[in-house]
């Protein structure tokens, strides 16, 4: 009876999440420095006219940033859910693998060594840097006694992140060009990147999403304890390895197209537990549309509170997410499973 009630609630929450996401997609297309009526938006899709300013704004500016928001928000939510399941810690974050720090160093290399200054040109550098950093954390954390232990993985990630952050600060304090270019990318946002950036990382994101959705049952077993999961015949090492690969693909792809956006991957799955419980299959399924909706909401809010300019979505997510997360932690009085 209790299980049936939870399933019913999860379905309601999922449908609500999808509905909110649809509303936020419309809002993202319609709202901004100039409000555009829904009818004009539909007309821009069906009968685009380059002579009409509203059509140009919708198709060339708001459609790309909306798609980037949906893709990056969903990917970050999935990556955060995976990390929390793999480490059995509801406050774990994709940054635990040094992904943001690795992406930042790679972007700085692109700026200082290759002279790239367009954010759209950072896509593969950010993705590659994130992948290399995460691979280093995974390899180092799996060596020696208790290799692959979540606590050891977290400590390794913290050490690698600290080292890469020191490199980032060193470059930024010695290069004015790097500082001026990097500071805009580093806050995280949905602007200055086109659909070509999404296309470039679409395959890795899809592969990561497929692995994530197929990992739900394994994460539920790991939540019971690694020895219990192994006793039930589950291959814990395989689930952890695939989970790390999926996290790198998802978070690396999201960081490549939207910059390092903090808190979203941490906040979404943690908040959803209060509504749907600890079943990772539900958390993954519902988390994807919720993450997309949250990032679009942050982007829309940033368009208004920064008027006549804009505040990047990454800043809004961090500003709003920090107090919300603190409230959740104080209410639950729990930081680990």
TrEMBL record:
GO MF annotation: an example: transmembrane transporter activity
Signal peptide (from-to): none
Main localization (coarse): membrane
Biological process (GO), any one: siderophore-iron import into cell
Bilayer-spanning residue ranges: 66-83, 95-116, 122-141, 153-177, 197-214, 243-271, 283-305, 311-330
Subcellular location(s) of the protein: Cell membrane
InterPro entries (alphabetical): ABC_BtuC-like, ABC_transptr_permease_BtuC
GO cellular component, one term: plasma membrane
Membrane topology reported for the UniProt record: Multi-pass membrane protein
CDD domains, per database record: TM_ABC_iron-siderophores_like
Name of the featured protein: Ferric enterobactin transport system permease protein FepD
UniProt source species: Microbacterium lemovicicum
